[in-house]
Design a protein that fits this description.
heterodimer, A: mainly alpha, two-stranded antiparallel sheet, B: alpha/beta, 5 strands
Chain lengths: ~350, ~260
Amino acid sequence: MHDLAGESLKFIDLNLMSVVFLFIVGFIGGLVSGFIGSGGAFVLTPGMMSLGVPATVAVASNMCHKFPKAMVGAYKRFKYGQVDIKLGLVMAASAIGGVQAGIQIQRYILNKWGEAGSNLYVSLSFVVILVIVGGYVFYDAWKIAKTGGVEKVSKLAQKLQSINLPPMIYFKRANLRISLWFTIPVGFATGMLAATIAVGGFIGVPGMIYVVGASGIISSATELVIAFIMGLGGSINWAIHGMIDIRLTLIILAGSLIGVQLGAIGTTYVKDHMIKIVMGTIMLLVAVSRALAIPEYLTQLGLMSVDEGNINLMSKASFVIMCIALLVGALIILGSMWKARSPRFAAQESYGKA
Amino acid sequence: MNSKSDSENTKMQIGRKILVVGEEGLFSESLIDYAVQVAKRLNYDILALSVIQKDLGELTDKSNKYNKLIEIKAVSCGVGYNFLIRSGDTGVIVEKIIHEIKRIEFVITGSDESKEKIAAEVTIPVFSVFSNNNIKGGGKTMAREINKKKPVGKVLGYGAISVALYAAVFTNADTVTNYFTRGGWYAALPILTVFVFTFAHATFASNLWSLLGISAAHKDIKVVTIEKSAQDDVRTTKVARKRPRARAYINPFHRI
């Protein structure tokens, strides 16, 4: 087990800049994931790598901060009555299967086409899934906003709920009854995506909304339960291999535990479709960012020729857009919270003064 | 059963007012003080409503006693004042009064039970006021505010624990990373550490947000939407029923 860690200390020296960077990204990532159920990881992992942390350590340390963050978020939102634990457990169980399948596919591609091929596969899945799913989420949110903020259960979910295929499960909090056979693929896909692009929530939350038929607020809260279970399992696995840099984990955790609670509180201020707006926006921006990384891998595979200067520029732009995606998400959350808060606050003030 | 004359009632129709509700002819002193103070600062009038179950002489006497008491306090603060006695169900009566007498901005009651009864019937804000003797200077706290004590001690306490934990790890960073990356059974170390840190730091963060005044707006979001549906239906039908009344006001204008 110890061999993976290497003999020399592979952990970077921390300076003030990197500590502040990790803390802030942790905070913003926490805010976003408290609100939409996932997020942060897609900036944190490349962010840590840009500080010189090896990829595996970055992934491991990130995952080790993810599960306590998800736990706190889930607990907070459970108190607001937004978490369907049963749905979370069913989804998490099938997601574990998905993770295994995802890892197998990754291995197969790595053996066949090498690292560039594997990277290309990851980036392509990112772009394809995020554009399709993110685009639809955004379109749906826009439609809801236009029609006055009334969320409807999707036609697909209605149809699936009406099919009586035993065993049928009743999810009390989400207030729906659906066959187990329809929730398993959603969980499986969540796990597979988590193993591929490290952000399972991008498929888990839309899956729960449009396939299972739960509301945006329940889905995003329940995703935190899935993230906790999967993150804990993953972290134990990484810890057994000795890959977790606890210092990095703790610094990110310092920020994200503050952020995640603000995000969770935020869900009680805003209209339900805000979750979809934030999620759709982030997914589309991340898709753009990953699309910019594709030429590099295509060049490495000899399928395309782009000169090195441009590739460098594109990979920098890719990272910047990724940060922007997170930042925009955070700003929408804070903005909508502020908007929802001001009238309430004004009323409180006037009574409070008395 | 209105104890004031009609002309005064007409006067009451003009200004914005607070409806203060006392059940069984009972108004607690803190409720009266609070209502008068709020009305004074907001420049509102006070409309006190005594709800009694039956038309009992004794209760009416009690109500009249409170009527005097509130009047004295209101007048001394320069707040416009009127008093009503009604018998029946609190919620229904308040709803009726809100429609009869215009410009009632919100309702204050002396107990949570009556607050709930009223809130189920009306759409304007309803608050309850508890008597809280711990507050110096005669300040009164609205019922909801009682739980919102600023958790300064907790923030400092858990903040200190959090800082101590971080200091402990980062001053011994080399030893810690050395043990924590040994793998195998040592894997329990980082996982346990993270749980301990999370407990201290998350409690600190949670209290920090409440100290900053940022707390959940309406808890039980989904429970409300699911379980409220029946109540919602009632409300929509109520609103629908009210509409014709509004039209009756508009019609004369059309003729002009």
